[in-house]
Amino acid sequence: IFRATKRPGGIMKKNSRLILALDVESRDKANSIASETEGIFDAIKVGYPLMLSEGLSVIKELSNIAPVIADLKIADIPNTNHLICNRLFSAGAQGVIAHAFTGRDSLEACVDVAKRWSGDVYAVTEMSHPGALEFMAPVAERMVMLALVAGASGIVAPATRPERIRALRRAAGGLTIISPGVGAQGGSLRDALEAGADYAIVGRSVYESANPRAAAEALLDLI
Ligand code: O7M
């Protein structure tokens, strides 16, 4: 608990409250969308699609435009988690995303590495898709408690179910809540933020738009 209260909410700078999920599969496309929307997003989330296509070097490139959160939803034993986090932070990530279901020791391994790099760890509690109701939702509050105890900066909670953001916010205290599921998955930006999310994560509704900057600005207008 002490560690969690020592660095509540992490180091991401809250401005637009929007995080771009850049799930495109080419470096050029990633760079062009990130440049076009420069100044709008508080962070860019890069995951498997782009990292498997183009390698870890995209992290450093994109971090010239906005802080990068590396989303590999890390879920391994503590030693492997430690190695993965070191790779991601040394590649220039400012934050990483790790699953909470693997338990305290695995999540703490991520937090230990993040602290060395002055970076953030966001723990996945309940995901935004319908399947998350099968195994994750029933134990999501416990995973939030784990995120607090392990010293994570924040949690991931579903914009597709604002009532669950509200419940997880009650458990999460001052942890940062980042929330995917706005737009393409049917979630409402306003509802997610009103329910207690600090940031909304938005992907397809921006990067698949004919005019990503206009799409991002339209989201800003809603906030
Ligand atoms: O706006 P979308 O639906 O195109 O993209 C949403 C992004 O958020 C995409 O990168 C997903 O992998 C991610 N995501 C979810 O959609 N649901 C979750 O529960 C968790 C994530 C996520 O980012 O976890 C950190």
From TrEMBL:
Pfam families assigned: OMPdecase (PF00215)
Secreted listed as a keyword: no
EC number per UniProt: 4.1.1.23
Binding site for substrate: 23, 45, 71-80, 128, 180-190, 203-204
Gene Ontology molecular function: any one: orotidine-5'-phosphate decarboxylase activity
UniProt record, GO biological process: 'de novo' pyrimidine nucleobase biosynthetic process; 'de novo' UMP biosynthetic process
CDD domains recorded: OMP_decarboxylase_like
Gene3D superfamilies tied to this protein: Aldolase class I
Pathway: Pyrimidine metabolism; UMP biosynthesis via de novo pathway; UMP from orotate: step 2/2
Active site: D71, K73, D76
Domain Orotidine 5'-phosphate decarboxylase: 17-219
SUPFAM superfamilies from the UniProt entry: Ribulose-phoshate binding barrel (SSF51366)
Enzyme class: lyase
The entry's keywords: Decarboxylase, Lyase, Pyrimidine biosynthesis
Top-level taxon of the source organism: Archaea
SMART domains: OMPdecase
HAMAP family linked to this entry: OMPdecase_type1_A (MF_01200_A)
Record's function text: Catalyzes the decarboxylation of orotidine 5'-monophosphate (OMP) to uridine 5'-monophosphate (UMP).
Family note: Belongs to the OMP decarboxylase family. Type 1 subfamily.
PANTHER family with a match to the protein in the record: OROTIDINE 5'-PHOSPHATE DECARBOXYLASE
Quaternary structure and partners: Homodimer.
Protein name: Orotidine 5'-phosphate decarboxylase
Species annotation: Methanothrix thermoacetophila (strain DSM 6194 / JCM 14653 / NBRC 101360 / PT) (Methanosaeta thermophila)
Taxon lineage: Archaea, Methanobacteriati, Methanobacteriota, Stenosarchaea group, Methanomicrobia
Encoding gene per record: pyrF
